[in-house]
Amino acid sequence: MGEFEAIRPYADAEVRPVLERLLADEAFLSTLTHYRFPRLAGPLGWLLRPVLAHYLRREIQGVDSVAALQTRIEPYVDRSIEKASDGISYSGLENLHKGRAYLFLSNHRDIVMDPAFVNYALYHAAHPTPRLAIGDNLLQKPFVSDLMRLNKSFIVHRSISGRREKLAAFQTLSAYINHSIRDEQASIWIAQAEGRAKDGDDRTDSAILKMFHMSRKDEEFAAVMADLHLVPISISYEYDPCDLAKARELYIRASTGSYSKAPGEDDASIAQGITGHKGRVHLHFCNEIRTPDNDARQLAQRIDGEILGHYRLFPVNYLAYAMWEERDAQLAVPAAGELFDAAELARAQAEWQRRLDACPAEQRPYLVMQYANPVRNQYRSRAGAL
Question: What is the enclosing helix (H) or strand (E) of 189?
Fold first, then answer.
């Protein structure tokens, strides 16, 4: 495992020492104190931090493996997930074979919650949780890196600038993903493209697929992809807690040509994504792609068809599409009132209007786009016009 030392998740033997390191980390304890006791953390932080450390030490007593840690924190994660949603559903899990490692490739809307919901679904269906890809841009603080690597996360180096260094990093990443699935029988989750689809347009980047093949260039692309047992996952959120922030970013990019993140913006997005209201959430585990195309772009389009075709459209999506200036006149998209009952539609109309009212007028088209794009994409997919 030496070649993967810088990116791999922590092993069982490292769990205890890393937990002890976290309990002595002032930055970690301060962050947790502010999250748990926002009003008292300032004046009484000096008192609350050691109390919190003592509580945590008692909670993790006897935890000496990654599986034991996930089992211990599972009730807290479940409560956090369920508190911020109006119900989670999932389908397609019956098509997964116990004992087989998969390459799960999903659309990407939320930094933390996408893999959290995947873990939630797999854990409750008695499947092993996968190893999770996370960009190093989100690991600015050592304790964040420790927490993520304890939870089976491996690091994707995105902040490297040199071309040669990037190629070396992708080569290592490719080798690690193949090693994990083939040699260690450990599944992998990774997003279909770098960064969240802030405009709601879920597309697979063929460069991601080519990266999987980089470490096995002497083999056919299709054979390598078949060997990795690729399973697309379609993740659908009724409401995106970060939709207003995404609309603002898209507006600034369109107006100025660029966008610079403020310090702590990623942290704020993570917190909002975790705690913000999401309405209903649905995950669909698509069938394994057993006969992949030998061309990365063709395979990417095939994956898009699976993800877009199984995306669950909610009333808000149809409401947004009806007012979208870029809707496709060639598509036979029914009105929301034809698909949903009056009570459900009324609730959606009230919530959608609340979000529109909270969005500055000049940014509103970008809010509408986020919710409307999945409708156009799915109906184009049905018509074979992706």
Answer: strand 188-191
Q: Which among 306, 336, 312, 339 has a CA at the least distance from the CA of 237? A: 312
* pLDDT reported for residue 2: 79
Q: Does domain 66-312 have CATH number 3.40.1130?
A: yes
Closest CA to 280 of 119, 67, 88, 92: 88
Residue 230 has phi, psi (to 5 degrees) of -70, 125
The pTM is what?
Answer: 0.93
* 3-class DSSP assignment, residue 168: helix
For residues 265 and 286, give the distance between their C-alpha atoms in angstroms, rounded to a whole number: 33
Show the tokens assigned to 310: 């199984």
Query: Please, which residues have CB within 8 angstroms of residue 113's CB and are 6 or more apart in sequence?
Result: 81, 273, 274, 278
What's the Cα-to-Cα distance from 27 to each of 20, 23, 34, 40, 283, rounded to whole Å?
14, 10, 11, 16, 34
Top pLDDT among 386 and 88 is at 88
**Which among 124, 127, 118 has a CA at the least distance from the CA of 95?**
127
Q: What is the mean pLDDT of residues 176-195?
A: 97
pLDDT at 162: 87
Nearest one of 348, 231, 350 to 285, comparing CA atoms: 231
Contacts of 329 (CB under 8 A, 6+ apart): none
Give the pLDDT mean for 21-32: 90
The answer, yes or no, to whether residue 1 has pLDDT greater than 70, is no
User: What pLDDT is stored for residue 159 in this prediction?
Assistant: 81
* 65-to-16, 26, 133 alpha-carbon distances in Å: 8, 24, 20
Give the whole-angstrom CA distance, residue 251 versus residue 249: 5
Q: What is the DSSP letter of 261?
A: P
Could you tell me where the beta strands, DSSP code E, fall in 17-117? Answer: 88-91, 103-106
What are the residue boundaries of the structural domains of the chain, listed by start?
66-312, 314-386
The rounded distance, in Å, linking the Cα atoms of 240 and 236 is 10
